[in-house]
Amino acid sequence: xxxxxxHMHTTEHILNQTMVQMFGCNRSxxxxxxxxxSKCDYHFDRALSTEEEEQITAKVNEMLQMxxxxxxxxxxxxxxxxxxxxxxxxxxxxxxxxxxxxxEYDACPCIGDHVENTSEVxxxxxxxxxxxxxxxxxxxxxxxx
Length: 145
Ligand SMILES: [Zn+2]
What we know:
Shape: globular
Bound molecules: zinc ion
Structural class: alpha+beta
CATH class: Alpha Beta
CATH superfamily: Threonyl-trna Synthetase, Chain A, domain 2
Helix content: 25-40%
CATH architecture: 2-Layer Sandwich
Order of helices and strands: HEEHEHEEEE
Largest sheet: 4 strands, antiparallel
CATH topology: Threonyl-tRNA Synthetase, Chain A, domain 2
Distance between the termini: 26 Å
Number of helices: 3
Oligomer: single chain
């Protein structure tokens, strides 16, 4: 299993939920998470305006600053499939699926490592976003607490 930076990865959960809520798009279909700088790609139909970039940034930071607990629970695959898209999980995930929650803001199946509380990430900054052939790419950095 690929080891992600857990601070970046937890921030990705929050960014994904923010994108879903603000634009009705899907969670990122591809990402590249590194300690210093990360990027997430979304299927999208246009570029973001500066105002939208600022709104996304403000929302992600608002959630980080709420000191939300990050928790995991396990449920049978059949039950999880009713509520979540399991297509992106590796087959190795097996018959018991781990659902990771960021407070009540986000819930998604995930086998990765996360921080225990969003307070461990001090802030989120969108470095840039661009749109190309149906793909919106968001690049971001974080500051660790
Ligand atoms: Zn995760």
